[in-house]
Amino acid sequence: MLSVILSFFSLLLNSAVVLYPLLFEARLPPISLANFGGIISVSLAAILALAGVFKIHSNRLESYRLFRISVLIQILFVEVFIFLEHPFIWLLKLWIDILSLLVLRYLISQEMLAKNRLS
Fold it and tell me: Could you tell me if 94 and 1 are in contact, meaning their C-beta atoms sit under 8 angstroms apart?
């Protein structure tokens, strides 16, 4: 459950950083490559995280894998676009994403061990 919360907190923070200039500026700024790439990658990560939420009751291992892929997308793509716009926030977000990824790796390994014991 902690990994789900961390993943969604990280996704929410990514979305806020990427979408803030587009939603709350007095006039709409021109969409830069960083904004466009951030919007696409945050959307993809959000779709995978939501798919993980819907699968958590039926297949927990698959759900954790979807969360892990979502966090990896956030680290490999979203963080790059955040770094281009906000370097300090990038450092904070990177640590949150790495912590989330480590928790997810642990949960996946525990789930695989439990699945192997039942087999």
Answer: no
Q: Which helix (H) or strand (E) holds 86?
A: none
pLDDT at 62 over 90: yes
- Which residues 6+ apart lie within 8 Å of 4 measured at CB? 52, 53, 56, 67
Does residue 24 lie within any of the structural domains?
A: no
Whether 71 shows a pLDDT value over 60: the answer reads yes
**Domain containing residue 110:** 2-16+32-118
> For the chain, how many structural domains are there in total?
1
Dump pLDDT digits (tens) for 75-87.
888 888 778 777 8
